[in-house]
Structures are given as structure tokens and as C-alpha cells.
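Hi support team,

I submitted a single chain yesterday and got back a structure, but I'm not sure I'm reading the C-alpha cell output correctly. Could someone confirm the output below corresponds to the sequence I sent? I've pasted both exactly as they appear in my results page.

Thanks,
R.
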Amino acid sequence: MTDSRICVFIDGGNFYHLVAKKLNFSELDFNFDEFVKFLIGERNLIKDGKRYYIGTVREKNDGHKSLQAMSRQTKLFTNLIATNWIIKTSKLRTRVERIKIDKRVENFEKINALGINEIVFSRSREKGIDVKIAVDLIVGAIDNKYDAAIIVSFDTDLVPAIDWVRNRQNKKVEYIGFSVPSEDEHNITRPTKTLIYKTDIQRVLIEDDLKPFIK
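Hi R., thanks for writing in. Yes, this is the structure output for that exact sequence:
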């Protein structure tokens, strides 16, 4: 319907790690406003209907690397706010993870022979982004702010909220997934099947679909 009221929810962390990084472009080089226009077509974007969710970068003892990341993120936020985006953030939590080098690892015997029995590394994860999206999705439905929500995410934790707004509030939910190839078959970005099954409309975008929005 051309008169449908649309709200767009973009999981920025998902988009960066599973799309932008693999296609070798920065969020600063991506025109999110034109992307939203592409997604909604001739329908009407509601007030505060462009919503971007991301974990905030914190300074680390890694030279200038984290400072540069913080600077890029601040510039991204400034650009988005200038065109009326609502930005919701959460802290990135860093934890130490360990991988045992045993028979589950290919060529583990050769690696063990070098005296390497485990790999220790730090991993940063966003905490609470899915909750923030789910809350906004539900509150917007209760307040009858939108007719359809467009969700750009890979997070299946959103399914309960999607089910609720569809079944209890009769709202439509559109899922935007991505298909990004990789030489490593374990690193291919694929649309989330659960979100495909749980939404009203599904679109899977490839690199050529995104090129018009990359500066």
C-alpha cells in the first residue's frame, strides 16, 4: 500500500560485520538515507522512522587503532543525526576466549608439535542491541506508530517480538537479508532462514543491490 506507515530498524553491528566489512566498504561510505528510500519505495516513512542500533567503540591500549575507530563512529553518528536518524547504542563487552587445539582442529597434531595447545584471544560483543530493537518494535506497535516494520538484522532473538507485533497488533514485518559470497565457505553471509519464515515480506540483497548506495 502506498499509504502504509513505515519504520526502519537497522542493526548496525550486523550490517558492518556481515556486509560492509566483507564487501570492503566503510559505513561512512554508505548512503543510509538513500538505502531507506529504496527499502520503503512509495510508502511513507514515519517521524523518527529511521532507527540505527550499534555498540559503541571504547578506547583500548592498542595505539591509535581504537581512537581511529571511535573517530569514525562519532563521524557516522554526526552524519546520521543530521538527517534525523534515531541512534540507540549499547556498550561493547570484551571477553577472553580460549580455543583448545585438539582433534576437532584440522592438522592439530602439527600445531601441537609446535608447542601450541590453545589459542587465547579477546572478542568484543554487543550486549543488549537485540533488546533495544525488540522494545522499540513492540512500543511502536502498541502506540500504533507504524503499519509495517522493516528489519535489517540477522538476529533471531528478535523473533518473539516479531511474532508479538504480527499476531497481537496485526503489524506487518519485512525482513531484509543479504547474500555475500566468500572464498571461505564458512564465512559466507546468508539470510537468516528463521527470519524469512517469521516475517510477511522477505528481500535478499546482493552486492549489486548495494552498489548504488556506496560512495
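A quick pointer for reading it: The first strand starts at residue 5 and ends at 11. Let us know if anything else looks off.

Best,
Support desk
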